[in-house]
Design a protein that fits this description.
Number of domains: 2
CATH architecture of the largest domain: Orthogonal Bundle
Low-confidence stretches: none
Number of helices: 9
Shape: elongated
CATH superfamily of the largest domain: Tetracycline Repressor, domain 2
Length: about 190
């Protein structure tokens, strides 16, 4: 039995992201992944039982990496507004710097491949942000007349659109625009 190579597994994951970006879930196949990775199809089956296994493992890997990036350097003891801004900017930068991965997570969530456990994980991704929103409400800094999910979705949708426009070179973000965009989000949710 051949020994598994983690670098090769990473290459398969990267090729899978490229295939998904270019062809979507409908036309995703192990053969296309193999061609993209420049490896034999049989090699993929050393690492993954089937297509669903590959997609599920990729989702779990990217899920954990994403959560870690969102909360990088966050300290709940910092001022509320600065902590929120840090997480907000982290999410924006994650969406820009890991665009393929973010796109995959969104597509996977809406695909027939997602299972109930993974849906629960996706909902858990929101929890740290919801906790920050709850803290802001408790401090009297965040609007209480709007539920937490609406606040979360309002900020998240704006961040996604900004990142998508930046990646597409339609609306290029710089530090000034990022700061102004955060101010718009803050003005939307502040008490």
């Amino acid at each position: 039995m051949r020994r598994k190579d983690e670098a090769k597994k990473g290459k398969i994951f990267e090729a899978s992201l490229d295939v998904l970006i270019n062809h979507g879930f409908v036309d995703f196949s192990m053969g296309k992944v193999a061609r993209q990775a420049n490896i034999a199809v049989g090699t993929i089956y050393l690492y993954f039982k089937h297509k669903e296994d590959l997609l599920n493992q990729l989702y779990l890997k990217l899920y954990q990496e994403s959560v870690d990036r969102f909360l990088e350097h966050y300290n709940p003891n910092d001022s509320f507004r600065e902590g929120l801004k840090l997480v907000w900017v982290n999410y924006l930068k994650h969406r820009i710097n890991h665009y393929k991965e973010s796109h995959f997570l969104e597509q996977y969530y809406k695909s027939p491949y997602i299972n109930d456990n993974h849906k629960r994980l996706a909902e858990q991704m929101k929890k740290p942000i919801h906790d920050i929103i709850i803290k802001g409400k408790e401090l009297g800094l965040v609007r209480r007349d709007v539920d937490n999910e609406m606040i979360f979705l309002g900020m998240l949708g704006f961040i996604r659109e900004l990142a998508d426009e930046h990646v597409g070179k339609v609306y290029v973000l710089d530090e000034d625009r990022i700061n102004k965009a955060f101010e718009m989000s803050w003005n939307m949710i502040k008490a």
